[in-house]
Amino acid sequence: MSTLRLAAGQFLRNRAAAAGLICLLLLCIVVTLAPVIAPYNPIQINLGAKLQPPSATHWFGTDYFGRDVFSRTLYGGQLSLSVGLAVVLFAFTLGVPIGLVSGFVGGRLDNLVMRLTDAFLTFPPLLLAVAIVGLLGPDMRNVVLALGLVQAPVLARMVRGSTLSAREEVYVRAARALGASPLRIMFSEILRNIMSPIVVQLTIVFSAAVVAEASLSFLGLGAPPPQPSWGRDLSDARNYLSDAPWMFLSPSAAIMLCVLSINFVGDGLRDALDPRSWRVRAKPVPPAAPVAVLSEDLA
Amino acid sequence: MIRVLAVRLAQIPLVLVVVSLTIFAVTRATPGDPVQIMLGMQSSPEAAAAMRREFNLDRPLPVQYVLWVDKLLHGNLGESIRLNQSVTSLLAQTLPVSLKLASAAMLFALCLALPLGVIAALWRNTWLDYLCTGYTVASFAIPNFALALILIYVFSMKLDWLPITGIGSSHSTGLWGAISPFIVPAIALGTLQTAVLTRLLRASMIDVLGQEYVRVARAKGLLPRTVILVHALKNALIPFVTMATIQFGYMIGIQVTIEYIFAIPGVGSAVLNAVINRDFPVIQGFTLVIAAFFLCANIVADLLYAVLDPRIRY
To answer: Which pTM was predicted?
Structure first.
């Protein structure tokens, strides 16, 4: 427990990571409270107020149907963040057990699983998602399924690699000697010890999923039309780029802010969960004179 | 090394078999009938049946798969259901366009990442480094289609410097006419790669600059320029070249949004259209070729690694 607290301290001392976390939390709160905060109904068409520039009544302007861009961006965030979370859950539940079993059991099973993930990884991820969503039909469930299927093999490979090295550790041998079942060793002992790289990878999955969801929606393969979505709203903005550039500003800023804060949190977690990179507050050691080092080396 | 190359090459067909089975299963397991889409709802049952027979869609699934693979082995990717065209000729039309765009984007990424990576490493932890790092962080966060819209707004609409269409059209004239339509899409597509490559080069350059032989070169009294360019950069470029090759293979697959915005007739648009219209032969043929392309790029990257760094023996 104390290592966790130490890691949390390291994380919060990292200014970029702390800022990212605060930003991400704010984003989550604002998006969850969208029904309270949003000044307008995001799908309410008001042709009398179409393509209005940002003003006191419409902070980020209105789109071609007179819908409030700010309200749409808030509700679009609900979609993006929930899809991102769902993909993280999906990839975790599919990728982690596959990687654990494959790495722990090894042998032929491992070989087969790795060839399968190889095959999945040879598809460019976005194109694979386009194919899956396009064939299954544009629907949020299918988007989550497609993005999860794209991300799970990456996670499985990573977990397998960590399991391979964890398998030889002393604590695993100890658990085995104590008569722990393989399942218990895998899902309790090993999983607990390889959790840090998994958590870091999951933040990457999260930000990749947010971008991929926006890309799919942009291509018309995401949520069906009236529903606000960052990617689809950007796709709509494309047609009014010269008349109404504000339509484009708020969804793209939202995507950037979201991805940026997740990436900062991910980078911070990577450093905080790796004790080797901890910055210990100690007296600075005066650097050795380089000439002396060099002459020693040459001697 | 030849043995390893042989093993790697032998693995390609194996992976491709798995890929082809997967994509075949996905296309057939999902709802939507290409014949219905092609002929419309009012089609006569006879016409639909004739068309199914023509494309072997009335046969059992294993037979369909075997027929497809048999054709594949004879170098025939089949006929598009929707376009009156063979998949091979569609590929011959779209792949060069995509390759050109990917090359332009990679050229942009290399031109920017090389100086940025070196500068960030040489002046690390100064404002120059923070500027470069800030650039990579921002580039990681902005999706290529959002960047494309910004670039279109600024360079094509406000400044009117660059055209936004024209790739794949024949009426562009002169050198500028041939190059200019690629500039905006290439920047939009390549920016993510500039970030990936800059970060990598910065890290490997810092690593190399701390090595003994660089210190020895400095101690010998060589010009800083010689030390940096000949001794350090040459070695720092090894992982950089490998990564650039992998990223090039990757670009073919992530172009789809850029092709969509700029109406570029490349492989991404072809797959998108084929998926929407359930054009099975096109989906199968294209994904297989793209996967093979990606695999080859990875093998080339491995080989380059061994060529550039003689210490590496496979």
So the answer is: 0.83
